Records
---
Amino acid sequence: MAVFRIFFGVMMFLSMFRFWANGWIEKLYIAPKFHFSYYGFDWVQPLGVYTYFLFILCGISALAIAVGFKYRWAVLVFFLSFTYIELIDKTTYLNHYYFISVLSFLLFFLPANRYFSWDAKQKKMDSFYVPQWTVDSIKMLISLVYFYAGLAKLNSDWLVKAMPLKIWLPSKYDIPLIGNLMGQEWVHYAFSWGGLGYDLLIPFLLLYKRTRWIGFILVVVFHVLTRVLFPIGIFPFIMIVSAFIFFDAKIHRKILAFISKVCLLESKIFKISKTAVGNKIKANTTFVIKPLNAYVVAGFILIQLLFPWRYLLYPNELFWTEEGYRFSWRVMLMEKAGYAQFTVKDGITGKKFAVNNSDFLTSFQEKQMSVQPDFILEYAHYLGEYFTAQGHQNLEVYVESYIALNGRLSQPYIDPKVNLLAEEDSFLPKSFLLPFNDTIKGL
Amino acid sequence: MKKMKKFIVLFTVSLAVFACSDSDDDTTDQSSDGFDRGAMLINFADNIILPSYQSYISTTQDLVSQTDSFVVTPSIEELTNLRSAFRTAYLSFQNVSIFEIGLAEELRFRDRTNTYPTNIQEVTSFIVDGNFNFELPSTNDAQGLPAIDYLLYGLGTDEETVAFFTTDANAEGYRNYLFALVNSINILAQNVLNDWTSGFRNTFVANDGSSASASVDNLTNDFILYYEKSLRAGKIGIPAGVFSNDPLPGNVEALYAQDFSKELAIEALNASIRFFNGRSFVNSQSGPSYATYLDFLNTIKNEEDLSTLINNQFATSIAALNTLDSDFTNQIATNNNAMLETYDELQRNVILLKVDLLQAINVNIDFVDADGD
C-alpha cells in the first residue's frame, strides 16, 4: 500500500505539472468566457488567475501524499482541489479524472501512511501490516473499473461493426512498426475483441496469484499500446502503476528498497531489514482503525457498483442521449461528431439570427457541446441570458443540430422546433431529443 | 522467479515471431490496401494549388499593367479594359482563397485580398493623406479587391469615375492609391507562390502524417473553415441576414460591380467542388482526393457512400445558386427567400463535411486529451 501511495502521489504531481506545461490551465480554465457546469454544481466556478494557485495546491498535496507527510490532510486537500478543478467545466470530463477523484476519496479512509512515510517515522506509528480489507478495497475499485469498462463494450457496435476502432485506427498508419496494419479490417476486429477480453479478464488474472505476472505483462502491453494509439495522456501510466497493488508484500518491499537506494535515503530512516520487520510484526501487528472508516468504504464501493447501471432507468439508446453515460467507466466507446447551429429569435416579431459559436466557446468546448444534450441546453440558456443583457426581448433559442455516431451518417439530433429556453435541465429523460432511428444491441 | 523468467523469455520470443510474420504479410499487400495521404497531398499541391496560384498571378500581373495604362492616360476606354482585368482577377482569386495555409496564413492573404464590405471613409482618408500601411490588420477593409471594386465602379458614372483620376483635386491621390491596391494584391500572391515553390511545397507534401499538425489535418480544417465562413456565410448567409436581424445587402461581394456577385459565388463553389474531388486545375483530371479517400475508407466501413452524398449536395447547391439574380443585392430586395434557400443547401454540406467527412478521415480539430466519450 505504501508503494501504491508513493506512485499515486508522484503520478498526480507529474499530471499537474503536465497540465501547466501544456498551457492547459490557461486554455481550459481561464481563457473560456463560459464554462459548462455539472448539474447541481454551477456554484463551482474558475478562480481567474487563482486557478493556478489551485493547481499548485493540488500538486503540493500530491507530493505530500507521496512522501506520506500529514497524509490525511494531504489526501483531503488533494481530493478537494482536484475534484474542484474537474467540476469547473464538464467539457474536460474524462473517466480517468473521475477515477482519480474516486481513488483519492477512498485513500482518505485508508491507512496508506503506515509504512515508509514521513508520518510513520515522526509518530512512530510504523506498521508493516495493514488490515487486508484496506488493500482489497483498492483492488476492488480497480477491478470494477476494468470489468465495467468491459461490460460496456458488450454491444453490437463494438463487437459486430468494430466501431469506433474502425474509424480511429486507419488514421494511425504512420506509427512505426505496426502502422501498416492499422488499415486492415481484421486488426480492427482483433483490437475490439482483444480489448473486450482484456477488460473482462484482467481483474481475475491479477487477483489470481499464478496468473498475476501474465496479467501484469498484459497490463503494460495494453496500456502502452493505447498510449501510442490514442491521445489519453498519463492515464495508461496510472493504470500500470496501480496494478502494483495486486502484488504481494515481497515485491513491494523490493520496490521500496529500490526507491530508498535511488533516493539515497538514510538507511536509518526507512530501514528495511527482515529483523526489523520481524520485530515490528510482534510489536505492532495490529493498530486500530475506526470501524466507521470501514463502513464508509464499504458503502462507497457499493455505490460505485450500482451507479453505472443508472442508465437502465432511461428509455432511449444510451449512446444517443448520453443520459447516464458519464461516471460509468465507459471508455473509448463512441466516435461522435456533431454540429449545432443556434438561432436566436424574437418570439413576437419573428425576427431571428444565427449565432456564431466561436464568439462564445473555444473549439474544444464547441466540439463537446455539439454532441451532448445537457451541454446544448446549458449553452442555449447562456445565449438567452447573454442576448437578454444585450437588450433583446421575447427571446427564444432554437438549435439545428446533427450528430454522426460511430460512422453512421449524420442525423438530426435535437428537435429544431423546441424553444430551448423553455426547457430546464434535470435528471429526467430529455424530451427535446429526436429518435435515434437505429438500434445498438447489448448492455 | 525462475518460472517467471522462463515465461518472459517465451513471451518475448513469441511476440517477436508474431511481429516478424506480420511484417512479412505487409510487404505484399500494403500498396493495394492503404490509402496514400502523401499522394493526395502531391495531387493537391502540384495539380491544384500551385497552378491555381500561377493562374491567379497572371491575372494580377495583367491587372497591374492595365492599371498602369489607366493611371498614365485615364480614359473610359482604359477604364473598360481595367474593369475587365479586375473581373478576371476576382474570379481567379476564388480558386486560391481556399488555401489559407503556410505563408498565406501568416500574411493573412485572404483577409488582405478580399475583406468586404470595404470601408469607404477609410479608403477616402487614405487617398487624401496618402499615408497608409496595408500590413496593419486595421487596414484590411480598405484594401484588396473590394477597395478596387469601389474605385472602379463605386465613384459614379464612367465619366465621373475617370474624372476622379484626372480633374479631381485629389486625382494624384486616387491614382496612387489604386496603383498601391493593385500592386499589393499582386505582391501578396507572388510572395505566397514563391514560398510554395522555394521549399514549402516539399515540406507540405512530406508532412503526410496523421497528427494534428500534419498537412492533411491543417488543409482539411482550412478547407472546411473556408467553405463554412467565407463561402456559405460570407457570400450568401451574411448578406441574406442569416446572422443578423435584417438582411445586409451592403455586405454582398463585389457590391459596386453589381452584377458580379453570383458569378463569383459560383466560381468559388466550383473551386471547392474541384478541390474536394482532386480535379486538376490544368486539365480537370481527377487524382487522389477526399472523394477517393472516402471511397477507400468505405471499402472498410461499408457505410453510406459519403462522397456521392457530398457531391450530390454540391450539385444541388450549384443549381440553387443558378436560380439567383446575377446581382445578389437585387435578389435580396426582390426575393430574399431564394437566398435563404440557397444558404440552406450550402449549409447541408457544412454538416456532411464538418461532421461526416471529419469523422470518416479522423481529423481532429483540437489537441486536448479526449478518450472518446
Note: DSSP finds 18 helices and four strands in chain A.
---
Amino acid sequence: MTPATRHKLRAYFTSFLRTVMLIGICYVILLPLIHRLSTALMPIEDMYDQSVRWIARTPTLENFRLVWVHMEYVDAFWNSLKLSTFTSVLQVGACTMVGYGLARFKFPGSKIIFAMAILTLMVPPQLIMVPMYLNFRFFDIFGLLGEHALNLVGTYWTFALMSLTATGFRNGLYIFIMRQFFRGLPRELEEAAYIDGAGLFTTFFRVMLPGSVPGLVVTFLFSFVWQWNDYLYVTNFMAGKNFLPQALEGAATKVQIAIDEASALASTSGFLDDHFYSLINNAGMILVILPLLILYIVLQRYFVESIERTGIIG
Amino acid sequence: MMAKKRMFLSFRKRQVLGGILFSLPFVIGFVLFFLRPLAQAVQFSFSELVLTSTTYELEPRGWFNYLYALQRHPEFSRKLTETLTDLATRLPMIVAFSFFAANIINQDFKGRTLVRVLFFLPVIMGAGVIMKLEIDDYSFIMLEHAQEGARFGGAALRNIFENSSIPEAMMEYVVGAAESLPTVIRASGVQILIFLAGLQSIPRDVYEAASVEGATAWEKFWLITFPMLTPLILTNIVYTVIDSFTVMNNELVLLIRETMLEGAGYGVGMAMSMIYFTLIAIVLAVVFAILSKRIFYHV
C-alpha cells in the first residue's frame, strides 16, 4: 500500500466515524423538536387515536392559527424583540468591559471583584427575587431619596440598570467568558498599541475588541436567547405586559375560553384537557423558538469569518 | 499636552487606573442590585415571614430554620447528598463530551452549518418558559416514557461486563454514563458553543508554524488546542454547575420551592437554599484551586 492510498483510507475512515457520531448526536437532539412539531400539526382527534404516533393523519395548521391569534403574537414578538435587543446589547457591552478589566489589569482587589462576579452566578435568581422586587419597588440609593423612593417596577429601568452594571441574569457568566477570552489573546497586541501611544480605551476598542469577536457573538447569543425565553424577570418586573413568555404561558387557557364561549354547549366546557393544552403549547413553543433559530443561523457565520480575522491579527 | 501625559503613564499606574475604570460599573451594580437583596435573603433565612393584610413582618428565629432543615426535615439531607453526587458524576461527562463535540464540529466537512445549528437547539429549548411548560406537557411526558425503553441498553451493557474483572464502581460509572448520554448531550449546548468559540479564536498561524516544524495532528491537538482551551474548561465547569440549578429534575430545588410555599415555611426554604449554595460555592472554590495552577494563559 502506498502512503497516498493509506492516507486516503484514513481520511475516509475518520469522516465515516464522524458522520456516524454526528447522526447519533443529532438524533438525540432533534427527537424532542420533531416530536413537538409533529404534535403541533395534529388535530385533536389524532391525539386520542393510539394508532397515530408521529405523523398526523390529517395535518392541520389550526393549532398555529389559534395560538397566533391568542398570544397576540405580533405584538408579543415586537415587545420581546425590543426588550431582548436592548438588554443584550447593554449586557454584552458592560460584561465585556468588566471582563477586560479583570483579564488584563493587575490592581488591588481584582481577585475579589472576580470572586464577586462568580458569586452572582452561584446564587440563583429565584432565591433573591422577592428582595430584588422590593428593592426596585422602593428604589432608593442608600436612603438618599427617603420618602420619595421610586417605583421602577413595570419600567425598562429595572432591566437597564441591571444590564448596565453587569448584574443581570447570568451576567457573571458573560464576564467570565469575556475574561477567559481576553486572557487567551496574546499580550503583544496591547503592548504594541500602548507603545504607539494609544490610550486605555483606544486600545480596548481598536485592538482588543476585534480580536474577540467569537466571544462577543457567543455572549450576545446567550444574552439574547435567555432574555427572550426568560420567565422569571419578565413576569416579576413587567407583570401584565405582553411579552412572548407570558403570552405563551397564557395562550392555552385563552384558546380554551374562546372555544368554550363560541360553543356554549361544548362538552369540554370548563374541563382542562391536557391533550388539547399540549397541542396549543407545542405550537406556541415552536413560534417562540423559531426567531431564535433564525438569529443563530445568521450569527453563526461570524464564527467562521472570524477565523480569518484572528489569523491576520495574530 | 494631555496626549503626551497619557503616553508616559507608568505601567503600574495604567494597570491600576484601567482595572478600576473597567470594573467599576460592576462593583456598583454588585452592591446595589445583588448584595442588598442577598443580605435580605440571608435575613429571611433566620426568620419567619408573617404576612399581614397590608405588609409583611419578620419574626427572628435564630438558627432554628437551619437546624430544622438539617435535622428534622424528612427528605432534605438525603436529597442534598443525592443532588450533589449527581452533579459530581455528571460534571466530568458534560465537560468531556462538549469538548469532544466542539472539536468535531470545528472540522471542515459537508453540512457543518446544519450540524452547528442543530447543536444550538438544546440551548434554546432548555431555558426559561419552554422548560417551564415542558414539565406538565402531556405529549412531552409521553415522549419521556417512550425513551425509558432506551434504558434497557444499560441493562444489556451491565450483563456484558458482569463476568469480567472490571471493578464494580467503574462498571457502574460506565453503565451510568451510557444511560444518561441523551441527558448529557442535551445539557451540553452552551458548553459546546463556548468551546467552539474558543477554538475559533486560536490564531491559525500557530498551527501553520507547527505544521512547518513537522508536528502531527495528534501533537497539534495536545500541544496547541488542548492548552489553549484550558481556560474555557474552567468556564464550562462553572457554567455546568450553575445550570444544574435550573435543570427541571433538580429535586432539591423543587423541594425548596415546595417547602417555601406549602411546607415548613418560607424561612426554612430560604435556610435550605443557603445551605445548598454554600456547599456549591465550597465545591467550586476547591475546583478553582486545583485547576487554576494547571491552566495555560498568555502572560
Note: Chain A has one domain: 66-313.
